[in-house]
Each structure stands twice: as structure tokens, then as C-alpha cells.
Amino acid sequence: MNPKTGNTFKIVAIVFMGMTAAMNILGGIGTVCAAFLTKNYPPLWAFYDYQLQYRILMITTILVGIINVWVLMKLVRGSPTAYRNALIILVVGSIIGGTQYFASMAIRGKGVPANIKFYTNLVTLLIFGLISLPGIREFVDFSKPASKSEKAASGGLAAIVAGAAMLSVYWWVGSSHIYMGENWVDVLQAPLIIGGLILTLSGLGGVAWAMFESSKGAAPEVVHQPKT
Predict the structure, then answer these.
(1) Could you give the C-alpha distances from 36 to 1, 21, 110, 198, in angstroms and in order?
(2) pLDDT, tens digit, for every residue of 94-151?
(3) Does a structural domain hold residue 139?
């Protein structure tokens, strides 16, 4: 691995952290059905006796998502504790996500969409785990402040992925939230679309600015020869 490849690996890790933050926040908000609305929807009656546990899962998942965002900002800006904090919150997120996934499988026989949240946390944890391996850790450093263009590029890509996750909820949630022809996701349709568009467009703006700054830096310097 070389510094250029290491920088690419760093950006990939940041993008996955952004996606994980989005999945945790969306997953926590989505758990409100099993935590508070079991009486309203017959398909959720199996969760009635476990409402307290799912309320705890809902609150902790949202908190993990918020901390994910804070860690993401540290990773983008550069901080001596950013990598350590990322590993800690990803381990916590994977445990909580796994608990909800396997509990849903045991109670209802279905793990969707909790499985997607769990897999996202786990894959991101594996990516950050790879960074600690010899031959990689020497070239992936989250402790040093990044340049403005690097911050814009990595932060922009993370925002695009998070925005895409919000806009594509209908696809990755699938049929698990449809009852009698009604999609429960419609309740959050407006904030999902507005938030998703804001993140996606701002991310595209950040990437475009980073590309513009990089092209300026790559422009060859014109040297004027003195007249004779």
C-alpha cells in the first residue's frame, strides 16, 4: 500500500461510517412501531410482551447513530482519538444491531429490516479493523488534520451515501412495513425525502468543490522567462 491508496482507504472508511450513522438513526426511528405501536398493527402483536426491551433498543440505537455522526465529524476533520472512538461505537452498534436482529428472528421469524442495520455496523467495523493491520495502518491516519479539499471530498461522499440511504428506504425496508396495502414508511415520507435531498445535494456540492480545489492545485505553474 502507498499513501495514495491509504488515502482512498481512509475515504472509504469515512463513507461507510456515514452510511452506518444513517442506518442507526433510521433503524432507531423505525423501531418505534415495535416499541410503542404494537396494538395498532396486528403484524406487530408478537412484540407486545417485549415493548420495554424494544423501547430500550430504539433509544440506544438512536443514541448510537448520533454518536456515529459525532465520530464521523472527528474522522473527517482529524483527531487523535477519532479512530479509537470509531472502533468503540462500531462494536456497540454491532452488538445492539445484532441483539435486535436475532430477537426479531426469535419473536417473529423475520429479521428485516433490522438485519440491514446489523450488517452495516458489522461491515464498517471490519473495515476499521483492517486499518489496524500492519501494512495498512502506516498509510491510513485519522489523527492528522486533513486539507480542506480532503474534508470536503470525504464529508461530501459520506453525506451522499447517508442521503441515498434515506431516499431509498422504500427499497431496503421492502415489504416488511406494508400492511393491507399501506406502507408504514409513508408516515415519515416528507422528512425522509427532505432530509435525503439536503444531504445528497450538499454532499454533491462538497465533492464538486473538492474536485475544483484539486484541479487548481494540479494546474502547472507558469514560469515567465526574463526578456533578453
Answers:
(1) 50, 23, 19, 29
(2) 999 999 999 999 988 887 788 889 999 999 999 999 999 998 989 999 998 878 888 8
(3) yes
